[in-house]
Specification:
17% strand, two-stranded antiparallel sheet, alpha+beta
Length: 71
């Protein structure tokens, strides 16, 4: 069962930290020149200034490569 967490804009940083206490929180993070979705560390907030990411957020859930067939 999925639990809904509401975070007010005025309490954004504290709300994210409360969520991290109980869950793994992922968001866009700038790595060198590009953005990608990664797990957020303690004290780290998602960076929403990005236009596009190198990989889609589905890379968090699914592996980058899968065996399609073997022979």
């Amino acid at each position: 069962m999925m639990k809904l967490i509401r975070i007010d804009k005025q309490d954004w940083a504290a709300g994210i930290e409360r969520a991290k206490a109980a869950y793994r929180v992922y968001g866009p993070v700038k790595e060198k020149e590009e953005y990608e979705f990664k797990g957020l560390n303690q004290g780290q907030l998602p960076d929403f200034q990005f236009k596009n990411t190198r990989l889609s957020p589905k890379s968090i859930v699914f592996p980058q490569s899968e065996v399609m067939f073997t022979y």
